[in-house]
Amino acid sequence: MAIIGIDLGTTNSLAAVWRNGTSELIPNSLGEYLTPSVVSVDSDGTILVGAAARDRLITHPEHTAAGFKRSMGTGRRYELGSRVFTAEDLSSFVLRRLREDAEAYLGEVVDEAVVSVPAYFAESQRAATKRAGALAGLKVERLVNEPSAAAMAGHIGEGDGDKVCLVFDFGGGTLDVSLVERFENVVSVTAVSGDNYLGGRDFDELIARGFCQDCGLSFDDLSRQRQETLVRQAETCKMALTTQEPVIMAVADEEISASIALTHEWVIRKSGALFQRMLAPVRKVFMDAGMGVDELDELVMVGGSSHMPAVRRYIAKALGREPASGARPDTAIAVGAGICSGMKVRADGLRELVLTDVCPFTLGINVINEAQPDKARMSPIIERNSVLPTSKEGIYYTARDNQPAIDVKIYQGEQRYCDDNTYLGHLEVAVPPAPRGEQYVRVRFTYDINGLLEVDVVGKNGQSGRLVLQGAGMSQEEVETRLKELESLKMHPRDQEGARTLIARGERLYAMTVGQMRDQVAWMLDWYQLQLSTQESLRIAKASRKAEAFFDQAEAYIGLSDLPALDLDPLAQDEEET
User: pTM of the prediction?
Assistant: First the structure.
């Protein structure tokens, strides 16, 4: 049985497999790599997926759905004729078709997939994606963020030294922006942001509306079929603009006869609001990462909509650099997902490669708001852009005299008040009667790369409780397996062998030295343990290298008279890491 990687896109979807040392794209039954993410119900009840369904958007719009990825996890219903589907139902049809194409191409059963999702997908959207996989007969344990997959596919970080790249992933329905750093064999996502409701489809509709505006027509007054025809034609013209300029957009039938010439400048002028929305997540990732644009080494643009010259020009001008050449924008994510599927089975050539991702949203619990008792505040435990997997805890005290229990409510989001964030679940732990503030609980969140959140609550007197918020589609047996794996996350990184060896070496040097040298060794030990406390793989790897180099220098000085001070200030050199 094989495992494949899938790019489940808003406009198109495609699959890849890791074999013979490379990520290989899988063609569909038409011999094409891109399968339109469109589903239609024929008159006899047959479900059509892909190109056949896409053509019915114009002829049978009431029986056809597209762009449903945007509604994942929302509960929205799609009426296709007499049948009703959810977004995950429709996505499962696309995934099933990709699975069937993969089985035909590989000549074996495909029962598992690594599926890419927008980095800014919330837990409900990720859970819906896993449900869609289960409905398609696929085990989907691993979700990979789309920019992370693109980072794996491209040539990010090739060569010596660090490399910081911005991955601008602009697809048909979503925009993801990620800062990615490559250090040795670690590909680490530093910060993510995005817009789940901005993509190429918005440009298609905007061009269609702009056409109507310039031709004295009202887009909203047109029939749904005519609107879809205009949007489809706008998409065709948009794609033509990637190779020629101007492009004539024309409509001529019994009701309408109009035409205009489209240029890049026309698109930019009509799309000002969309371009401003693009820049918002770009600014946010730099702010969250504490970086400036001048620290960026490379701009990588992926996603089918990043083909648009107007988009490429706008982003290149905003960041002051041209996009890097590399993998095709519309296939890079699938290629990366294929690599991740190989990593999951520890394939040869990928065993030493490490991909670390980040938590896109803050996770926390409710605390009393003294100023407004009816509006609980959210206390963050795992903040957004924390490197995954991670395990962190907070201590919380009783708010009233003789309080019988502490009710821990878990939320996801960035807002100050709990009601403005997404509620995930709750866990109540009894506490003995005592004056306010005397009893407390330790609340630990352990969050893994597969979307499994474990909440442990332990009281002052040993009382405890545990809640597991699992990604949908995982069996109880799989949950228990993952919980055992999560136990290792609760071990502080300083307990791991490499870190223990470096700390022991530093402590030995501290005992052997005196004066200024001893002070500098102590300083390095303190700094190194501070890096370990972050529990972030990339930061620890870099800190280990610096600590080892420092200790090498220190040992070279031992035994010499008039020891000079080492010309190394770790805290100054790595100020951005502390």
Answer: 0.70
